[in-house]
Design a protein that fits this description.
Layout (H helix, E strand, L loop, with lengths): L1 H18 L11 H12 L9 H4 L2 H16 L1 H13 L4 H10 L8 H29 L5 H13 L18 H15 L2 H11 L8 H24 L8 H16 L14 H13 L12 H16 L5 E2 L2 E2 L2 H28 L4 H12 L14 H16 L1 H9 L16
Antiparallel strand pairs: 1-2
Helix pairs in contact: 1-2, 1-4, 2-4, 2-17, 4-8, 5-7, 7-8, 7-9, 7-10, 8-9, 9-12, 10-11, 11-12, 11-13, 12-13, 13-16, 14-15, 15-16, 15-17, 16-17, 17-18
């Protein structure tokens, strides 16, 4: 974990230096904003303090897009794919690292997942770029080819970076653009485990899909439908829209929060407090493991629900659909929640000290940064250097993972197992 964390840090710093080059920017920009952009792209967050198209040249935009791609599927995944493709196997050291980056359930080999990740990413992003190009050309978007490639990669990697300063607000009524971006984002967010698992099931290489896939698909579908219904029925700012546009806006904004892609088709600052809180909850839950999204993860959320249900029913084990979840996975879910909540609480507290904005805006900003979402109420560019630094740390921790970050720097190799047991009242 320490090796992986330092690797991401190295990529972020290298890209920061490249973005500081004169030929990468169109206007002089403070170094803190370049660092902010670099970490935001590598963490696939999408929060920006400056305009991407207005501040960076084509060279700078390419650097940002490469960072998004590396951050989306992981730099170790690229390296493992090259090694496996060349030698036909992964050395033990690289295998351990690959399994840390791409945790796989029983029944799937990490080599198959790594190869599937790269092939699947290439195919989906190419098809997405072709579809977006056709949609952009139809409505007369300038430089449609580059915009299609940029937004296809940004959507699939759930980065939320856009070449348009108002994100996707200009396409709010375009069902084709909204649908293409939503499909790309969902495919990236549900995780490569699901895609490889379903492919192996359809081709007869496995007898049934894994419990992980069933939980991911079920929880994603349930949270999406519930969020869309609530947003459609209760958000005041879209009540005056025609039913079609209202449904489209609801679908897109809920999708954006849950997949952590971070695009917005309506102004987030105009949303009610209830809708902002709904989006915060979805951003905290986030995407799924071994995918391109962030957040706590749908499987972790489902495991926590299982723990609550088991406690209420007086069961000592956690079950889903007749299958017992290993206690080690349940323990990881509880630890992930603790680390995630701790990082969010500390981040909000520090932002409240450094900034004068309303607390709900700061909470939304911190949740978006830690969940690597990219949605904002509009205060990102107004943050002080101290506030930007706090958000940078939150985005980086969100990309590595709060639990992984804790393991990387606070793990005690010399701990000893205590055999004596004593009761604790909770």
């Amino acid at each position: 974990m320490r090796f992986i964390t330092l690797g991401y840090l190295g990529y972020a710093l290298a890209a920061w230096l490249l973005l500081c080059l004169p030929w990468a920017q169109t206007v002089p920009t403070p170094w803190i904003d370049h660092l902010f952009t670099s970490v935001s792209a590598l963490s696939t967050t999408g929060l920006t303090t400056v305009s991407i198209s207005g501040s960076y040249t084509w060279f700078g935009e390419v650097i940002i897009l490469l960072l998004i791609q590396i951050g989306g599927i992981g730099y170790m995944t690229f390296g493992s794919f090259i090694v496996f493709h060349r030698y036909g196997f992964l050395p033990d050291r690289r295998l351990d690292i690959a399994m840390s980056v791409l945790p796989v359930p029983a029944g799937l080999r990490i080599e198959h997942l790594v190869r599937g990740v790269v092939h699947f990413t290439a195919v989906i992003e190419i098809l997405g770029a072709i579809a977006l190009y056709a949609a952009f050309r139809r409505i007369g978007v300038e430089d449609a080819a580059w915009s299609a490639v940029f937004h296809s990669i940004s959507a699939f990697c759930t980065a939320g970076f856009s070449l348009y300063d108002t994100s996707m607000e200009v396409f709010r009524q375009d069902a084709w653009v909204n649908t293409i971006l939503a499909v790309l984002s969902y495919l990236g967010a549900i995780g490569f485990i699901v895609c490889v698992d379903l492919t192996r099931r359809l081709t007869g290489k496995s007898r049934q899909i894994t419990l992980t896939t069933r939980i991911i698909v079920g929880s994603t579908l349930l949270l999406s439908l519930a969020g869309i219904v609530l947003f459609y029925a209760l958000e005041p700012s879209i009540q005056a829209l025609p039913p079609r546009d209202r449904a489209l806006a609801s679908m897109f904004q809920i999708m954006s929060a849950l997949t952590t892609v971070g695009f917005n088709s309506i102004q987030i600052s105009m949303l009610s407090q209830a809708s902002l809180f709904l989006l915060i909850l979805l951003m905290v839950v986030g995407a799924s493991p071994s995918g391109t999204g962030g957040g706590l993860k749908t499987t972790t959320f489902s495991a926590l629900i299982g723990v609550m249900r088991s406690a209420v029913k007086g069961m000592e084990r956690v079950y889903f659909w007749g299958k017992e979840i290993p206690p080690s996975r349940v323990l990881l879910a509880m630890a992930s929640l603790g680390f995630y909540a701790g990082a969010l609480i500390i981040g909000c507290y520090l932002l409240a000290i450094a900034e004068n904005h309303e607390f709900e805006a700061l909470l939304f900003e911190a949740s978006s940064a830690l969940g690597t979402v990219g949605l904002s109420t509009g205060i990102t560019s107004l943050l002080t250097d101290s506030g930007k630094t706090i958000i940078i740390f939150l985005m980086f921790i969100g990309r590595v993972g709060p639990l992984a970050f804790g393991l990387a720097f606070f793990h005690d190799r010399k701990h000893r197992e205590l055999k004596e047991q004593e009761d604790l009242v909770v």
